[in-house]
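Course assignment 3, question 2. Fill in each field.
Student: A.L.
Task: Predict the tertiary structure for the chain below.
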Amino acid sequence: MATEQNQITDGMHLMVDALKMNGVETIFGVVGIPVTDLARRAQEVGIRYIGFRHEQSAGNAAAISGFLTRKPGICLTVSAPGFLNGLTALACATINGFPMIQISGSSDRNIIDLQQGDYEGLDQMNIAKPFAKAAYRINRPEDIATGVARAMRAALSGRPGGVYLDITTAMLSTTMDADAAQKTLFAPVEPAPRQIPSHKAVERAMVLLSQAKKPLVIIGKGAAYSQVDEAVKEFIEKSGIPYLPMSMAKGLLPDDHALCAAAARGLVLANADTVVLLGARLNWLLSHGKGKKWNADAKFIQLDIDATEIDSNRPIDAPVVGDIGSSLALMLEKLHEKSLPQFTDWLAEIKKTKEVNAAKMATKLACTNLPMNYFSALKAISDVLEKHRDIYLVNEGANTLDDTRNVINMYHPRRRLDCGTWGVMGIGMGYSIAAAVTGKRPVVAIEGDSAFGFSGMEIETICRYKLPVTIVVFNNNGIYRGTDKNLGGGDDPSPTTLTIGARYDKMIEAFGGAAFNATTPDELRDALGKGIDSGKPTIINCVIDPAVGVESGHIGNLNPKTSIKI
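Answer field:
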């Protein structure tokens, strides 16, 4: 803003004013040249700034904040290396459909374009384009409002995604008349308009459903993002169709709901004759809808906001292109006009399989061997979390991710946050910080020891902001497991071996957090309960048998192995 003395402003101040006008409440970032004063100015006008130790974690926080709020999360970085550090998170936001804007300072355009070797000189906008839904550069302060508005609209409209916004050093320091600058400011009107599907498409889908004998609804995180929770619940319960929640859609309906078929996943995928994809994609997470896991004759109904997603892996018999809320509203109208037939035999078959699988899981969870394995540790965690159903659960790892997803039930939407579409590690601490800041509830992060290492330094950030985050590190001394040997016989550890007997809990003591070392289920229950109840930053070093763990978890088939015996 201008002062009374000079009646001028500059790009730095105007940029913050534009963000404020667009409803930005929090910025996640790492400061330095040329954006340090931008962060200071944001604090001055009431925008909360959360300063990280690494830009990738700040970007992950911005991305998951966008998922939780349906507003673009903002990540602020310095130029060149800082920009590149944030780019992984930006790419993940785009592939996951999370609205996020990465704002990075950049160096002198004239020197960059002639490749004359400027400080941190990099053509950031063009580098970002392949990884973002859109990328823009603001060169003049009078264009700031337009640049921010375009970034907001791009991040939110259609399928959400990551947007890169380049702000040059020269633009940030350029001055202009304050009154003229204020007149340029605006916020976009309805940046994410409803997209209503055709009635013909809805009719086609409902006709197909009425002919089904063994239907299935697969709920994806696109449905969770849409925040039309009651419509999803009504559609499932009114139709009587069993559903399979994808990982980040768990809790949209409670995992203990009678129509939840998660415990009979193999059965329903192999036998469903009609599949409704509700904000879910037929990507690798669903074996692309092909192969022995699937009924080759199944018919598909797909509700998606992006028409290019239709037919991406299998022919879609009834595409319904529109936003999830509008599409479900029209389908519910049809359901109220004419109910679907009962699926009594199909539901009975699913129930029987669920009971068999539940008994098998109960046996795994009852293990009393020490050191703990994944299941005995997760049973202890589950006992505690059943009393804290409203917490946010952040989860990453290989076996730690797979087994947690199968054991820990979720009861509220958008409370399970994990590595998503790409399965990338390193999201843990960024997601935890954003959930605590944005969701204003306690967070429990269940981390593999390898996965924790990607963003572990952010425990200082968690302590600095006094966030209610309890981190459980499943420590089996290695990537996948800690018993691999150096095949060359040397002194170096194997490629998958981490420090034996590491005490991750000791790390947080340096920053004033609470530390626990748990070697038994009872110790783990006690430590987790104390961590959650205290509302203070906490790490629990959860000692797991080094020999447990399957290489690459449930996706070992994607990890090539040598065919030559060593």
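Instructor remarks: The first strand starts at residue 8 and ends at 10. The chain has a mean pLDDT of 95.
Grade: pending
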